[in-house]
Design a protein that fits this description.
alpha/beta; eight-stranded parallel beta barrel; about 45% helix; binds flavin-adenine dinucleotide; methylenetetrahydrofolate reductase (NADH) activity
Length: about 290
């Protein structure tokens, strides 16, 4: 698996997809079927999220290995600071590296459910920039991605502070930024401008999620505090909870977003596909048309 930073230098636009580790074996089989279907569109890389704790964390390793070995994909496992000491993070970094991965998405992780404040594990790390530094010190040739928040991270007191903190991650050695999902491209364009003004010059990959329903998008925007454009709400409301119609609206909205982003020089796009192949395939077809 080659470093994604090499791909940035060679190809544009890059298309990446995000999977999450399923809870059970049936979920892994569904994911395998989705990966099989997605072969057709040949994503440049895929990423696999890291759970808040428990057994899905092992599945990040399992699913990442499966996607790399069985499907020949360039895979970027995610890693968070939650619940891990520095020693454990170094061991996890070694394991990922020895298994042939050269990319990691380095994150702090969220506070556990029910608490608002993030608490580092004993002898653990407090912020993602510390994880970037730890991983780089351990394996200098790892390519690291980090998260960016066009609508500000919910815990940051203001945008400027958040951008300073984003810059810390880049200065510590991150090669690119993948953004939190957003539904209005102007939010992304403003963010990229602000990154540039701050001296952040690494690629900022827009994170796009084709929505599945009004209920889903309301829940997600509550968590991420992303702006939900009234035009999108109106169209979803008119679908009256019909799953297929809602999904088509989500795909159409994402397609318009991606067309605009690529026309405005984005390096590529990252799709939050929730382990489903359908929307990614429809988007690829729409973009090729
Ligand atoms: P940080 O960059 O550490 O930022 C967290 C907060 O602290 C921000 O408010 C920031 O402004 C502030 N801050 C940062 N550094 C400093 C500093 N040095 N001093 C003072 N303040 C600071 N979560 C998972 O659990 N698993 C996943 O796989 C996962 N994947 C994700 C993928 C992407 C692309 C994104 C955008 C998010 C993902 N998340 C994931 C969610 C993420 O863990 C949460 O958003 C988390 O709350 C913040 O993580 P971070 O790495 O951005 O943290």
């Amino acid at each position: 698996n080659r470093p994604i930073s090499e791909l940035f230098a060679q190809k544009r636009p890059l298309r990446s997809l995000e999977f999450f580790p399923p809870r059970d074996d049936a979920g892994v089989e569904n994911l395998r079927a989705a990966a099989e279907a997605l072969r057709r569109i040949n994503p440049d890389f895929v990423s696999v999220t890291y759970g808040a704790g428990g057994s899905t964390r092992e599945r990040t390793t399992q699913v990442s290995a499966m996607l790399k070995t069985d499907f020949g994909l360039t895979v970027m496992p995610h890693l968070t600071c939650v619940g891990h000491s520095r020693d454990e993070l170094n061991e996890l970094a070694d394991r990922i590296y020895e298994n042939g991965f050269r990319n990691i998405m380095a994150l702090r992780g969220d506070p556990p459910k029910g608490s608002v404040e993030f608490k580092p594990a004993p002898n653990g790390l407090r912020y993602a920039n510390e994880l970037v530094a730890l991983l780089k010190a351990r394996h200098a040739d790892l390519c690291l991605g980090v998260g960016g928040y066009p609508e500000k991270h919910p815990e940051a007191s203001n945008e400027d502070v958040d951008l300073d903190n984003l810059k810390r991650k880049v200065d510590a050695g991150a090669s690119f930024i993948t953004t939190q999902l957003f539904f209005d491209n102007t939010v992304y364009y403003r963010f990229v401008e602000k990154c540039h003004a701050r001296g952040i010059t690494v690629p900022v990959i827009p994170g796009i999620m084709p929505v599945l329903s009004l209920k889903q998008v309301r829940r997600i925007t509550q968590l991420s505090s992303a702006y939900l454009p009234p035009a999108l709400i109106k169209r979803l409301e008119a679908a009256h909870d019909d799953a297929d119609t809602s999904e088509m609206i989500g795909i159409d909205w994402a397609l318009t977003q991606i067309r605009g982003l690529l026309a405005n020089n984005a390096h590529g796009y990252h799709l939050y596909i929730l382990n489903r192949a359908r929307s990614a395939l429809a988007l690829a077809a729409g973009l090729a048309a």
